[in-house]
Amino acid sequence: MAARFLSLACMRCESSRGGGDLSPRPHYPSMPKYPKGALSSEEEKNMEGSESTALFSVVGMTCSACAGSVEKAVKRMPGIKEAVVDVLNNRAHVMFYPSFVNTETIRETIEDVGFQATLVEDDTNEKSTNVCRIQIKGMTCTSCSTTLESALQAVPGVQKAQVALATEEAEIRYDPKVVSYDKLLEAVEDSGFEAILTSTGENTSKIQLKIEGKWNSHSMRMIESSLQALPGVQEVAIDPELYKFSISYRTDSTGPRDLIKVIEATESGRFKAMFFPEAGGRESHRKEEIKQYYRSFLWSTVFTIPIFLTSMVFMYIPGLKQAMDTKVVNMLTVGELIRWTLATPVQFVIGRRFYIGSYNALRHGSANMDVLIMLGTNAAYFYSVYSVTRAATSPYFKSTDFFETSAMLISFILLGKYLEVLAKGKTSEAIAKLMELCPEAAILLILDKEGNVIGEEEMDSRLIQKNDVIKIIPGAKVASDGYVIWGQSHVNESMITGEARPVAKRKGDTVIGGTVNENGVLHIKATRVGSESALSQIVRLVESAQMAKAPVQKFADRISKYFVPLVIILSFSTCLAWFLAGTFHGYPRSWIPASMDIFELALQFGISVMVIACPCALGLATPTAVMVGTGVGASQGVLIKGGQALESAHKVNCIVFDKTGTLTTGKPVVVNTRLLKNMVLREFYEVVAAAEVNSEHPLAKAIVEYAKKFREDEENPAWPEAKDFKSITGHGVKAIVRNMELIVGNKSLMLEENIIIPVDAEEMLAETEGLAQTGVLVAVDRELVGVLAISDPLKPSAGEVISILKSMKVRSIMVTGDNWGTANSIAKEVGIDTVIAEAKPEHKAEKVKELQAAGYVVAMVGDGINDSPALVAADVGMAIGAGTDIAIEAADIVLMKSYLEDVITAIDLSRKTFSRIRLNYIWALGYNLIGIPIAAGVLFPSTRFRLPPWIAGAAMAASSVSVVCCSLLLKNYRRPKILDNLEIRGIVVE
Questions:
Q1: Which residue positions in the chain have pLDDT lower than 50?
Q2: pLDDT value at position 349?
Q3: Is 658 a catalytic residue?
Q4: The domain 638-664+795-909 is classified under which CATH number: 3.40.50.1000, 3.40.50.2000, 3.30.420.40, 3.40.50.920?
Q5: DSSP letter string, 207-220
Q6: Which of 370, 468, 658, 792 is catalytic?
């Protein structure tokens, strides 16, 4: 499942865990699913190369015990890789190898357990949906992105298209049976933009290798054939000019090391293969774009400075003025000829990008910023050409040119775009930092057939393949996702999870690529490499969040449809109004500068209106702030899934908290035992554990863990056999153990079974509930023999967090499936006034809807499967990072550290982000609402102040830069100081 990496990323292990096998020559069992020798090497190869998934609807499950029995039955089958059963939605998701088992056999196995099963979806058939990402070059404003989005949506087979101006990317969900990604690239290019495919959405990885050696057509064919014969290789593309092979492959079948070995083994080792030296896609494009704008601005400046000097400076310097006024032909002067000569390459060569952008926009019936720039500069340039041409052909006409206007406009706009792209690159620094976490080198352990270490080899970490055994020395970064098979240490996971304290690791524990090993040597088995790693998936989640549009963005999108046409109308109206006013003596002749006439003055006002208007700033106001906000959140362990979640979170005024695992630690422990009959405590717990080991309930697991303390010499003790096991949802379990009828559960179960509860047991139950603990009764042969008190401690920061939320005017409510006594005690302890206890999953969702109907904007905070309906129903679902995959998948915000105070961080960050978005809109709209009237000359009658077009162009360029810089200030976000005080006082602990 897509969110599984988050539970991997946030798993914790207790610091008290013991060591592990520290023998000098570790031996690693291969842990096969089948007995050794049961499968031939060919069968194993087939099994690994043809993995499929299937989704079953399972009817009849009533509790987690039912789900557990289905899961165990399916996992026991040959050919099953993984099985996940969702009791809430009555679904079973199974990953299997079709060479060994089929969907019908799996379905029959589920029915043999006692439930009705139906195949819902089988991906052995062709997938009906793919998601690809395309990098877009050439977008200038929100009008471009909306036009391109519409063009992609119109392509048959496209289900959804999102185009982000800030990231210059498109994410497209499409049906591969109807349309290929090549057609999508064509659609982008037909819209007038350059398209680069960055991801096809297929379950493949891609590698580019540079080949050294003497090439010829025969050797190329040999290498290509060798690669294509390798299992898992899907496509091989050759670029003979760069000596480059591009290879697409499936990570579960092969890897980069195998590919390089095949190449270097071809034709007796004549060739050497290495990674092609190429930077990452988005960053490479960003750097190239920055270089292009820098070069364009530099060349534009080289031509524009002399134009500026000849028109604005030399006219005031005696000698130079006479030289510039020297006649060449008739009334054409040297200064005019120089300006014409220098302005032409600026207009048509350096400014060529604006003509291309305008043509593409107009061709598709839209207008963007390029259209405004083209119209403004062309008006200034071609009027100047007309004026100087007339002067050259007339002995009396004295020309007035605006070549400096067109040249300086283009120069300032290019400077603005350069600064804008430079600033926009900084908005995605969070992703760049995440990607840099992966180490450059790794130590590969070489094993013999028995699994003994016989050597080690240092290699490029990009060469790691699935099932490799990697050695991680103290101080080194973990090179790949995997699990520990030897050694013990502490690993600093703060760079991924935000967890400040190092986490203890021993044999069997999972580790995350990019984290830092602190103090011991670990040997890990790689399980997820390349794009499958937790780090890669976090990066993809943040990228997707930055692609998603916030609802407030619709405001800018609506304006952009009419903005440019409206500005063009205003510009022509301004020009016409001033011209008519001058023609019919609407203002004194003395208002007209000596170097101009009526038309030239009107033209300057019209051009200024056209070029000061800036649709870019409006388009960048929301996405740049969302990009920085989600990036800052990720760096603080708060993963926000897009602009919608950010926008909803800042309005939250009511939070519904789940109890277990959210307000409490989620690790219940037995804190007290009272035996009512003479029994040996060890024997008592043996029979209780024998029954409870079959249950998936957290309380049952707590009892089993406590029982293990009586068998400290055994790592995985074997409990007595439990016959006729039965789980009673919400009450407890029944079983026959050692010929004794055992009933373990709550008071309601005992009353239903007509078991007498003595007074002293009643008193202990009341005392337990008063201490916010859960009481569990144990009956043997229908006689009560013991009472267990189980405590799930409150998170140390819970009370403080509720208090801070009250100060933020956010109402807190607790909902739990636990009994009323325990629920009220917990609520009283943390300061929550409203409690809902003994609630089923659907009751939680109903409560959320009731609060929404009452006018609240509701956030739900939970961590379990039973929280999923409420997480989906809430305006904002927040999942505790250590919770279940299903809860994380349903949530809008994931709190990776599992700290409760990150609820406050998420709300505060969203509020700060949206205040920044509002400020951005004030900047963007302010420039236009104030600048356009000034450019149109509203101040001219009273103050004689007019805004020259080149200054208007500079103001327009500055508006985009100021909006992006305003968003970048969010990078300085610090969570509320009161939360730092919690850490200083030691409240925030595991």
A1: 1-49, 123-127, 203, 279-280, 884, 984-990
A2: 93
A3: yes
A4: 3.40.50.1000
A5: EEEEEES---HHHH
A6: 658
